[in-house]
Amino acid sequence: MAEPALTLQTARNLHLAAQGLLRKPRRRARPADILSTITQMSLLQIDTINVVARSPYLVLFSRLGEYPPHWLDEALARGELMEYWAHEACFLPRSDFALVRHQMLKPENMGWKYRAEWMAEHAEDIAELLDWIEQNGPVRSADFEHPRSGQRGWWDWKPHKKHLEGLFSAGKLMVIERRNFQRVYDITTRVMPHWNDEEHLVSQDIAQARMLENSARSLGIFKSGWLADYYRLKKVKLSDHLARWQAEGRVMRVNVETQGEMWLHCDLQPLLETPLRATHSAVLSPFDPVVWDRRRAQQLFNFSYRLECYTPAEKRKYGYFTLPLLHCGQLVGRMDAKMHRKTGELAINALYLEPDIAPGARLITGLQDAITSFAKWQGAQHITLASQPPSLQAEWGSGWEINRS
Predict the structure, then answer these.
(1) Which of the listed ranges 103-107, 139-143, 305-309 does the model predict with the highest average pLDDT?
(2) Which of 109, 184, 244, 276 could pair with 13 in a Cys bridge, judged by C-beta atoms 3.0 to 4.6 Å apart?
(3) Sign of CA pseudo-dihedral 135, 136, 139, 144
(4) Per-residue confidence (pLDDT) for residue 1, from 0 to 100
(5) How many angstroms separate the Cα of 21 from the Cα of each of 148, 160, 219, 229, 238?
(6) Taking the C-alpha atoms of 280, 283, 285 and 286 in order, what is their torsion angle to the nearest 10 degrees?
């Protein structure tokens, strides 16, 4: 049977459908949508930068529309979610604990995420800390003072912070909630009282196979080289998995314009029966699954993207914290923005369109609506634009007020 031939735009739309970004939300968000949306993506990457809304909240907003950010915190506190190292630090469904348990049991293989020398050197103090938590209950890093006073950089963690992070990576502690985005840790055996490694631990091969299956489903359409990066897996033989999935009817080969052979997850096959239109415009996080693999974003969307907050100011091309802009199936640009919460202002320092994007009326309206919704969700009263393409300047001027009704 000949492989189905797809246009590049159809492939993009299929990926966005798998990610929940193809069409605008059809109804108001509900608390249960937090877990279902993260399950759809498999992973929700965590980042603490709050120049605008922190990344995990923004990734959900891009898919759900306006919702109270505390819903994410409550889903974690209810035990629907857990935190652990996956793509990077991520929220994932608590039901996926078995997928990452092998990493917890061999933390020495996690590189910088687990400092074995530190844990060995401070073994007595760490044992006392673990015993204290077991006897007295959950703790935060903020509950402990730094032995040195004065201003310190983000790299200068207090000893107890290092202890807690090491115990977290080793699976002896879990994050049960966040208070003001600070982790609250408790003993894993108390958080997961029914879990028993001897009874419930699956083999590492099975755990990796399930992670790859999640990756295939969440990507929707993919090249084999994209799969392992989703959970940052190493030394996996993808050809065996793909052959088995194809034999089981889970994936099928397709031929995509300019891309060549790709794989389509069969959950999306019914979408090929009717024209697939993208109607959603949204502001994306730099850590959104659509763009967190920079190579994939370049290959699929022709979008060359780099987060420049760690680049010296004089070497930045676009700005400190640029947010990708999605419009109707394409990544059409990016904006460097900052939310001034005290004054209720979303300041767009610069907005750029991609060189091949023609700013027609639909795009201008779509982006303005997306940016307005993004700002309104964060409590902004007005939007200012310091720099933008001339084609948008004529329409938007230096900014606009937000109608709060």
Answers:
(1) 103-107
(2) 276
(3) negative
(4) 60
(5) 47, 40, 12, 20, 27
(6) 100
Kindly give the residue spans of alpha helices, DSSP state H, lying in 231-336. Answer: 238-247, 294-301
Lowest mean pLDDT among 92-106, 153-167, 328-342, 358-372: 153-167
The answer to whether the CB of 81 falls within 8 A of the CB of 56 is no
Structure tokens belonging to residue 22 = 């193809």
DSSP code of residue 4: P
Whether residue 57 contacts residue 71, with contact meaning beta carbons closer than 8 Å, is answered with no
pLDDT: which is higher, 235 or 107: 107
Q: Are strands 281-283 and 260-265 parallel, antiparallel or unpaired?
A: unpaired
CA dihedral over 57, 58, 63, 68, signed as positive or negative: positive
**Type of residue at 206:** I
pLDDT tens readout for residues 251-265: 999 999 999 999 999
Report how far residue 150's alpha carbon sits from residue 31's, in angstroms, rounded to the nearest whole number.
41
Q: Which residues pair with 334 in a beta bridge?
A: 324, 352
Report d(CA 330, CA 303) in Å as an integer: 9
Q: Which residue has the tokens 């930068």?
A: 49
Say yes or no to pLDDT of 156 above 50.
no
Contact in structure between 381 and 401 (CB atoms under 8 Å):
yes
DSSP conformation class of 47: -
**CB neighbour list of residue 151: distance below 8 Å, 6 or more residues apart:** none
Beta-bridged to residue 252, according to DSSP, are 264
Q: Which tokens go with 26?
A: 């059809």
